[in-house]
Protein: 3-methyl-2-oxobutanoate hydroxymethyltransferase
Amino acid sequence: MSSTSRNSSSPTALYGGQAGRRVTVRDLAAAKDRGEKWPMVTAYDAMTAKVFDEAGIPVMLVGDSAAMVVYGYDSTLPVSVDDLIPLTAAVVRGSSRALVVADLPFGSYQASPQDALASAARFMKEAGAHAVKLEGGRRVLPQIDLLVSAGIPVMGHLGLTPQSVNAFGGYRVQGRGQSGDELMADAKALEHAGAFAVVLECVPADLAARVTAALSIPTIGIGAGPSTDAQVLVWQDLMGLTPHPAKFVKKYFDLAGEMDHAVRAFADEVVSGVFPAPEHSYS
Ligand code: KIV
Structure:
């Protein structure tokens, strides 16, 4: 693992330190205590996970966003535990340092704490996930209680929780006005139930700042402004593969453009006979 490509020089830093073992939820708690910010990205396959792992990304999420970016659905609702387990196993195999969090998909945990435990246990046993994430606040506390008591680290997710897109009437900012108080109460309840971190998606920046200050567990923002302890993006968004990303996305690369250029060059050389050249051929 190259440490020269990392930004931080501290051996305890989450991004840039602690090579040689997996990041744990205790490391995330310690980073919050130190006031240290950290990055999280989604991953869905082994080779991409290896790149992110070697870059020092401390936490990878096998998001149910796979429904859209891997499977081509127009929401996160259709994917199942069976769809996500092979992706999670691939990300675990492709990484050696990152904490890998598996998203519990829609329908796999809402009905009962027992459903949540059965789904989470499959991700831990069959895929080797180190933690799970589920969406919702006080309504999923029984689920979080049972998972935590079974020794499964749980990441919460509040604000624009995409599995509830139909109830929200679209992908809209959440927590404006008085509903911000509800979100704050949900966040405190998740912390009290033993969640080790909470994602805040598409909420006003000042609300995210207040939640971050009020909690002793890390907050992970996506469209939640600059004050959260960590930031997460879907990797296809940050790399420029997503055609119409949300306002909160910053595009760090033009992967779609680069891939288009490369595949056209390959196709042109096949058609013209330039590829394969002698050095690509066996005698
Ligand atoms: O599924 C996902 O990718 C997520 C992140 C956007 C937080 O839940």
About this structure: Residues 25-252 form a domain with the TIM Barrel fold (CATH 3.20.20.60). The pocket of 3-methyl-2-oxobutanoic acid is lined by residues 42, 61, 63-65, 103, 199, 201, 222, 232, 234 (CB under 6 Å).
